[in-house]
């Protein structure tokens, strides 16, 4: 009785006691902000490091209601954090800056910020920020219209505007209410209460890799144009998932895809540039890749890990990062690895193939931009190899008919993240005469690469799940497991795996992309499998960074290799187990994404394939590109 | 209590002059309002943090601008940007204004201009630090004498 009362009182008291996480590297501003927030009777936690903030957020999804972050921070760009938080945790984020440049404000909005405040912050402004929490809850809860796309603009504008667009909000809410009847009964996965604004603790739906994979598969099946939340929900057939959840996730995914496509272009360019990978690198790469992965896995930030050799921020930050990550991580061979990775998708046994792989993809352009993209490019370029290349291509088309760019991005993403992983895998696999042996290595690298990428886009990598399961021993068969890389066309794993969380929509995209790509690339003997693994890894990697137990937002990274073998982050399911000395990458997001024993590439590939729609048929004997779903393994 | 009233009057006069000279602006008043029994030393705390931070940033800028081989204006700009943010948060108006000018020199990659601005920053910062320390001392004296700090609107 008393307890109940207390609980309800707390609820009723909202916004009092709202839990805010404040991030600002400037101690003066941080102290001021903290004091102001306390004055508003919020419950405040502060940190001067974005990385720490992410860690805290990932630790416990329900610990905070709102995040306020500075734009300029030394360890991570505020926008990136913004994205990650939005994607992974779906929390409202308010940006803070001394700079009122319209462009920056716009950037904040497009990245999903609920609001953009200027320093010095006034207490009056802070007194109103709780509305963003409510608004977001309502959005998530509300049923998106049948047509996801229709909703998107509304949602976007509402959310993006995020501020005081009361009318909009009201309208949307009303609409949603009307359409919400049937959804009202279901509880969100996290038990979102229906229309209870004062319920501060709205349970969030955790988009695990598995779930995301399903989501991506459903979207792929329907076609991105036609993918509406209702149908997606039906296809996914997950209990306790509401249409709102799907709708908001879809929105993010779309943003992600969009972002990836931009990135992809860049990456393609980069990939092209990096195209020529030395086969010897491949081997090295693979090893490195693994190492990187681990490194990645080790760090919260995927990209950091991945890019041991490279400055992490660069890698992660971008969509491309996923790819980049994979590549980056590897020391110079890393780049090569990328190509490897990409090629791996092809399953071309030769390393050269790998390289070509990337370029093959049409997404090359995307990749070209960055080293990360390199990976993608490679994947894309691998067209030549056909296998991997196919993947991207296939994926893009198959996966998302959204737009060419998306596809590209996917591929790019694919290559970047997932591909990377994948590629390397395949490459690796190919490299060695023994499929198994080589694969293992390849996969590893590939996985790592992918892992990274996936990490980014984990969110979208629901599709990768299947892949991960496939990852069996790398030894197994790389062949042709062109595991359909579920590339979620959209979401390239943008943010570095770690960051994966944040990018709200973009991240999704990225991850999707990654996942997709990863899957598909696996076809290479066992490489494919690896890809899967990679993909899973990515997820895991992604998760890792997320550092949250759950897979978090589809961290579709198959950070297989890294994660698992080296005790990758717990976040990422150690799907990758070391088998026979190889990393069996099992992309298993924390939630056991993949059966542990997916060692063989075949498994991986099959997993991947399964996850993807069975749209694609394996290219040839070498790998099967079934269900080449690109998952953005970012 | 003559002494207390005298001190209080002094305090008010001093505060007003600081505002008039533009050394402090309304934001500082907001800070003072935030100070209460729960956080009695809030203003002093924030000011101390600011001083520390500012010194660090000034050093960064100086080092960056001294580079013979080539000045990394981006780095300088980042420091200036941060200084602008913190100075505006504490209400150090003059410092903030110099930062604005400073930034445009950075964008123009004008080393001379930047150096001049840096000098100005150092000057304004020292001035502010001195004045604030005097103000805090006055506050302390009032409190010791048993009085309360007047609120300036």
Q: How does this structure look, described?
A:
The complex is a heterodimer of chains A (634) and B (153). Chain A has 634 residues and is mainly alpha-helical. Chain A contains 29 helices and 7 strands. In chain A, the strands form 2 sheets. A 5-stranded parallel beta sheet of chain A has the order 2-1-3-4-5, with helices on both faces. A two-stranded antiparallel sheet of chain A has the order 6-7. In chain A, helix 24 runs antiparallel to helix 26. Chain A is globular, with a radius of gyration of 21 Å. In chain A, 78% of the residues are buried. The C terminus of chain A is likely disordered. By secondary structure, chain B is mostly helical. Chain B has one domain: HPT domain (Four Helix Bundle (Hemerythrin (Met), subunit A), Up-down Bundle). Chain B contains 6 helices and no strands. The longest helix of chain B has 34 residues. Chain B: It is found in: Cytoplasm, Cytosol; Nucleus. Chain B: This is Histidine-containing phosphotransfer protein. Chain B: Keywords: Acetylation, Cytokinin signaling pathway, Cytoplasm, Nucleus, Phosphoprotein, Two-component regulatory system. Chain B: One of its GO terms (biological process) is cytokinin-activated signaling pathway.
Stretches of chain A where pLDDT falls below 50 for ≥5 residues? Answer: 143-173, 175-201, 276-600, 613-634
| Helix percentage of chain A | 55-70%
Largest sheet of chain B: none
End-to-end Cα distance of chain B, whole Å, is: 23 Å
Unreliable stretches covering 5 or more consecutive residues of chain B:
none
Q: Label the structural class of chain B.
A: mainly alpha
């Amino acid at each position: 009785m008393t307890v109940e009362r207390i609980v309800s009182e707390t609820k009723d008291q909202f916004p009092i006691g709202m839990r805010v996480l404040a991030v600002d590297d400037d101690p003066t501003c941080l102290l001021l902000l903290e004091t102001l927030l306390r004055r508003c009777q919020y419950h405040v936690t502060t940190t001067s490091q974005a990385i720490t903030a992410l860690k805290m957020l990932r630790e416990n999804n329900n610990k905070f209601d709102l995040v306020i972050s500075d734009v300029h921070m030394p360890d991570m760009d505020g926008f990136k954090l913004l994205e990650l938080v939005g994607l992974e945790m779906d929390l409202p984020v308010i940006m803070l800056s001394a700079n009122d440049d319209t462009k920056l404000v716009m950037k904040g909005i497009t990245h999903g910020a609920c609001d953009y405040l200027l320093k010095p912050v006034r207490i009056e402004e802070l007194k109103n920020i709780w509305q963003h929490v409510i608004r977001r809850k309502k959005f998530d809860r509300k049923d998106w219209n049948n047509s996801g796309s229709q909703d998107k603009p509304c949602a976007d504008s509402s959310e993006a505007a995020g501020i005081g667009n009361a009318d909009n909000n009201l309208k949307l809410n009303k609409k949603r209410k009307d359409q919400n009847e049937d959804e009202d009964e279901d509880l969100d996965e996290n038990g979102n209460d229906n229309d209870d604004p004062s319920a501060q603790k709205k349970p969030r739906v955790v988009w695990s890799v598995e779930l995301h994979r399903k989501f991506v598969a459903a979207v792929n099946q329907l076609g991105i144009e036609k993918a509406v939340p209702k149908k997606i929900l039906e296809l996914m057939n997950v209990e306790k998932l509401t249409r709102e959840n799907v709708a908001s996730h879809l929105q993010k995914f779309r943003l992600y895809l969009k972002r990836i496509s931009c990135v992809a272009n860049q990456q393609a360019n980069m990939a092209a540039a990096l195209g020529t990978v030395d086969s010897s690198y491949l081997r090295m790469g693979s090893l490195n890749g693994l190492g990187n992965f681990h490194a990645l896995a080790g760090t919260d930030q995927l990209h950091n890990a991945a890019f041991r050799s490279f400055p992490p921020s660069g890698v992660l930050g971008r969509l491309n990062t996923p790819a980049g990550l994979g590549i980056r991580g590897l020391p110079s061979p890393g780049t090569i690895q990328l190509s490897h990775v990409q090629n791996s998708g092809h399953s071309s046994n030769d390393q050269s193939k790998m390289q070509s792989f990337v370029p093959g993809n049409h997404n090359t352009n995307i990749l070209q931009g960055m080293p990360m993209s390199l990976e993608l490019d490679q994947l894309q370029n691998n067209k030549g190899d056909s296998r991997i290349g196919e993947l991207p291509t296939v994926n893009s088309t198959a996966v998302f008919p959204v737009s060419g760019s998306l596809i590209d991005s996917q591929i790019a993403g694919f290559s970047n993240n997932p591909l990377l992983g994948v590629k390397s895998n395949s490459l690796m696999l190919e490299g060695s005469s023994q499929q198994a042996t080589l694969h293992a290595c390849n996969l590893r690298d590939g996985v790592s690469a992918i892992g990274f990428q996936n990490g980014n886009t984990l969110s979208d990598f629901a599709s990768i799940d299947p892949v991960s399961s496939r990852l069996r021993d790398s030894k197994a068969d790389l062949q042709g497991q062109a595991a359909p890389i579920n590339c979620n066309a959209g979401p390239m794993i943008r943010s570095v795996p770690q960051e994966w969380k944040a990018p709200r929509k973009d991240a999704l995209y990225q991850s999707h992309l990654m996942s997709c790509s990863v899957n598909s690339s696996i076809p290479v003997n066992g490489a494919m499998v690896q890809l899967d693994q990679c993909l899973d890894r990515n997820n895991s990697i992604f998760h890792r960074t997320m550092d949250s137990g759950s897979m978090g937002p589809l961290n579709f990274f198959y950070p297989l290799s890294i994660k698992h073998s080296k005790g990758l982050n717990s976040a990422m399911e150690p799907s990758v187990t070391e088998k026979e000395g190889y990393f069996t990458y099992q992309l298993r997001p924390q939630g056991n994404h993949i059966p542990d024993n997916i060692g063989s590439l075949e498994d991986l590939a099959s997993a991947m394939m399964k996850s993807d729609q069975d749209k694609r048929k394996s290219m040839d004997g070498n790998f099967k590109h079934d269900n080449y779903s690109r998952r953005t393994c970012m | 209590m003559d002494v207390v009233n005298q001190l209080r009057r002094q305090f008010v006069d001093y505060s007003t002059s600081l505002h008039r000279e533009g050394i402090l602006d309304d934001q500082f008043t907001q800070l003072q309002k935030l100070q209460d029994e729960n956080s009695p030393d809030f203003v002093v705390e924030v000011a101390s943090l600011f001083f520390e931070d500012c010194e660090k940033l000034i050093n960064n800028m100086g080092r960056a601008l001294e580079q013979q081989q080539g000045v990394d204006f981006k780095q300088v700009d980042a420091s200036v940007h941060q200084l602008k943010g913190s100075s505006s948060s504490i209400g150090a108006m003059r410092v903030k204004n110099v930062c604005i000018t400073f930034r445009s020199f950075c964008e123009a990659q004008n080393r001379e201009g930047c150096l001049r601005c840096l000098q100005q920053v150092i000057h304004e910062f020292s001035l502010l630090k001195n004045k604030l320390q005097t103000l805090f001392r006055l506050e302390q004296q009032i409190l010791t004498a048993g009085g309360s700090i007047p609120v300036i609107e």
